[in-house]
Protein backbone atom coordinates (compact mmCIF):
# COMPACT_ATOMS: atom_id res chain seq x y z
CA UNK A 1 0.00 0.00 0.00
CA UNK A 2 1.43 3.41 -0.88
CA UNK A 3 2.37 5.65 2.01
CA UNK A 4 -0.36 8.15 2.80
CA UNK A 5 -2.12 9.58 5.79
CA UNK A 6 -4.89 7.40 7.17
CA UNK A 7 -7.94 8.60 9.04
CA UNK A 8 -10.55 6.93 11.19
CA UNK A 9 -14.07 8.18 10.56
CA UNK A 10 -17.39 7.39 12.22
CA UNK A 11 -20.07 7.43 9.53
CA UNK A 12 -23.61 8.70 10.13
CA UNK A 13 -24.89 5.08 10.17
CA UNK A 14 -22.53 4.25 13.07
CA UNK A 15 -19.95 2.26 11.12
CA UNK A 16 -16.33 3.20 11.73
CA UNK A 17 -13.97 3.15 8.78
CA UNK A 18 -10.27 3.46 8.11
CA UNK A 19 -9.50 5.29 4.87
CA UNK A 20 -6.80 7.27 3.15
CA UNK A 21 -7.17 10.95 3.96
CA UNK A 22 -7.38 11.80 0.26
CA UNK A 23 -9.97 9.11 -0.59
CA UNK A 24 -13.56 8.35 0.39
CA UNK A 25 -13.23 4.56 -0.08
CA UNK A 26 -13.00 2.52 3.12
CA UNK A 27 -9.95 0.30 3.57
CA UNK A 28 -11.44 -1.33 6.69
CA UNK A 29 -14.94 -1.15 8.15
CA UNK A 30 -15.93 -1.89 11.74
CA UNK A 31 -19.61 -2.32 12.53
CA UNK A 32 -20.35 -2.98 16.21
CA UNK A 33 -23.67 -4.57 17.09
CA UNK A 34 -26.05 -2.81 19.47
CA UNK A 35 -25.11 -5.33 22.15
CA UNK A 36 -21.39 -4.62 21.67
CA UNK A 37 -21.98 -0.86 21.83
CA UNK A 38 -23.99 -1.26 25.03
CA UNK A 39 -21.22 -3.39 26.54
CA UNK A 40 -18.63 -0.72 25.67
CA UNK A 41 -20.77 1.97 27.33
CA UNK A 42 -20.13 4.65 24.72
CA UNK A 43 -16.42 3.89 24.27
CA UNK A 44 -16.79 2.12 20.90
CA UNK A 45 -14.74 4.78 19.07
CA UNK A 46 -11.78 4.29 21.43
CA UNK A 47 -12.03 0.52 20.99
CA UNK A 48 -12.18 0.93 17.20
CA UNK A 49 -9.10 3.19 17.25
CA UNK A 50 -7.16 0.61 19.26
CA UNK A 51 -8.23 -2.24 16.94
CA UNK A 52 -7.31 -0.30 13.80
CA UNK A 53 -4.00 0.91 15.27
CA UNK A 54 -2.88 -2.63 16.05
CA UNK A 55 -4.08 -3.82 12.64
CA UNK A 56 -2.04 -1.17 10.82
CA UNK A 57 1.02 -2.00 12.94
CA UNK A 58 0.68 -5.70 12.16
CA UNK A 59 0.23 -5.00 8.44
CA UNK A 60 3.41 -2.94 8.50
CA UNK A 61 5.33 -5.71 10.25
CA UNK A 62 4.08 -8.24 7.69
CA UNK A 63 5.06 -5.95 4.83
CA UNK A 64 8.53 -5.52 6.33
CA UNK A 65 8.95 -9.28 6.67
CA UNK A 66 9.08 -9.19 10.46
CA UNK A 67 6.29 -11.75 10.80
CA UNK A 68 5.62 -15.01 9.00
CA UNK A 69 2.59 -15.12 6.77
CA UNK A 70 0.31 -18.07 7.34
CA UNK A 71 -1.02 -19.81 4.25
CA UNK A 72 -4.77 -20.22 4.63
CA UNK A 73 -7.63 -20.60 2.24
CA UNK A 74 -10.22 -17.84 2.00
CA UNK A 75 -13.02 -19.76 3.74
CA UNK A 76 -14.54 -18.41 6.93
CA UNK A 77 -12.63 -19.44 10.05
CA UNK A 78 -12.47 -18.81 13.76
CA UNK A 79 -9.42 -16.67 14.53
CA UNK A 80 -9.08 -17.00 18.29
Could you characterize the architecture of this molecule?
The protein is α+β, with helices and mostly antiparallel strands and 80 residues long. The protein has one domain (6-63). Helices cover 34% and strands 19% of the residues. It has helices at residues 34-40, 44-63, and strands at residues 6-10, 16-20, 26-30. Strands 1-2-3 form a 3-stranded antiparallel beta sheet, with helices on one face. The model has no long low-confidence stretch (mean pLDDT 87).
Distance between the termini: 27 Å
Please count the helical segments: 2
Please indicate the percent range of residues in DSSP E strands (runs of 2 or more).
15-25%
The figure for the number of domains is 1
Number of strands: 3
Overall 3D form = globular
Content-based structural category: alpha+beta
Short summary:
The chain is α+β, with helices and mostly antiparallel strands and 80 residues long. It has helices spanning 34-40, 44-63; strands spanning 6-10, 16-20, 26-30. The protein has one domain.
Amino acid sequence: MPTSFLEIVELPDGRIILRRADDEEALVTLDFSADARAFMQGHHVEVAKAMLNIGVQMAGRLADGELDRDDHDSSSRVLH
